[in-house]
Design a protein that fits this description.
single chain, 332 residues, Rossmann fold, disordered N terminus
């Protein structure tokens, strides 16, 4: 799984870790009780050294996707080494797909979510955030725990993400004070496979502005993200766009069909904008045939070329990328 490195690397190719970097990254700390004790370095009075905090925190929340239970956490938060709790807070929201759980997806190696159950895929999310060197908080909401469903629960409601983040930051006040939901800045939403329903709801009505969306074989509803893409085309423009949308999909199946159709709609949208120069944003990324080639982990724009903000590209055209996506599985 390479999404976090991609999303956080932005246009700085030198900071984007390659496959070897990600494989060699240290294992994330084991998750423990609700808001477990982090590694912290707080300066004394008069000390100008910024306070830092790091660790894995599992939380039981009233604002979780479903009613809180002692059986599993409502959400997991990972703060990388040296994290500085300062505003604006950069937030990455990762939504797992079918039959997985938040405590597993951050690991380097998969384990069962349910005791005695099958081993679930792990994506080394914590290790990738560490390798990126970015000062960002990873928030993994637990939707349907270890079930083959994409039901978003409360994350599908208006203000669902905002309520979740607000309670998360309140529970982590000992570590993150004085940060509140009002201090949230950039919000990146990433969805794998069946997590698309929650991702779409968060983008449409989650209560916090979403800056970037990354779908990993997750476009099972063909038009779910059209409104978000069209809501602010100007922000998708330029070499350092304020908004980004990336969709990676396998070479066959529902997500491939939907992705090609969305790419064609984006192409037509780009053509319509060209007929109105006064309103046309300076981006050619809406035209699928003009996308620059991409390879490996940095292929979606975080590497040598960074101009495409809207990326719709068939993974099957690039064997290295196809292997990366295929590792996620073709099922929701």
């Amino acid at each position: 799984m390479w999404l976090l490195a991609l999303a956080l690397s932005a246009c700085d190719a030198s900071s984007a870790p390659d496959a070897t970097d990600l494989a060699d990254a240290a294992d994330p700390p084991d998750s423990g009780d609700d808001a477990q004790a982090p590694l912290a370095d707080g300066g004394s009075a008069g000390d100008l050294t910024p306070r830092t905090v790091s660790g894995t925190f599992t939380l039981t929340l009233d604002a979780g996707a479903f009613a809180p239970t002692a059986a599993h956490p409502s959400a997991l938060v990972y703060l990388p080494s040296g994290f500085r709790p300062t505003a604006p807070l950069s937030l990455i929201v990762y939504l797992h797909g079918f039959s997985n759980c938040v405590e597993n997806i951050v690991r380097d190696a998969g384990q069962p979510c349910t005791p005695g159950g099958g081993v679930r895929s792990a994506y080394a999310l914590a290790a990738q955030l560490e390798a990126s060197g970015k000062n960002a908080m990873l928030l993994c909401p637990e939707a349907a725990f270890d079930q083959a469903t994409g039901n978003p629960g409360n994350l599908g409601a208006a203000g669902g993400l905002r309520a979740l983040v607000q309670e998360t930051l309140a529970d982590l006040q000992p570590q993150l004070a004085p940060l509140t939901v009002a201090d949230v800045g950039t919000v990146i939403v990433a969805s794998h496979s069946g997590g698309y329903q929650a991702a779409g709801a968060i983008a449409a009505r989650g209560g916090l502005p979403v800056s970037e969306i990354f779908l990993l074989d997750s476009l099972y509803d063909g038009t779910l993200f059209d409104a978000w893409v069209k809501s602010d085309l100007t922000s998708l423009a330029g070499t350092a766009p304020a908004h980004r949308f990336a969709d990676v999909y396998l070479s066959g199946g529902t997500t491939a069909t939907n992705s090609v159709a969305m790419a064609n709609r984006a192409r037509d949208l780009g053509s319509a904008r060209r007929r109105h120069p006064a309103r046309r944003p300076h981006h050619r990324d809406l035209h699928r045939r003009r996308l620059s080639p991409w390879t490996g982990l940095q292929g979606l724009g975080a590497g040598a070329r960074c101009h495409p903000a809207l990326l719709l590209r068939r993974a099957g055209l690039d064997q290295s990328a196809a292997r990366q996506v295929a590792a996620l599985g073709s099922d929701p």
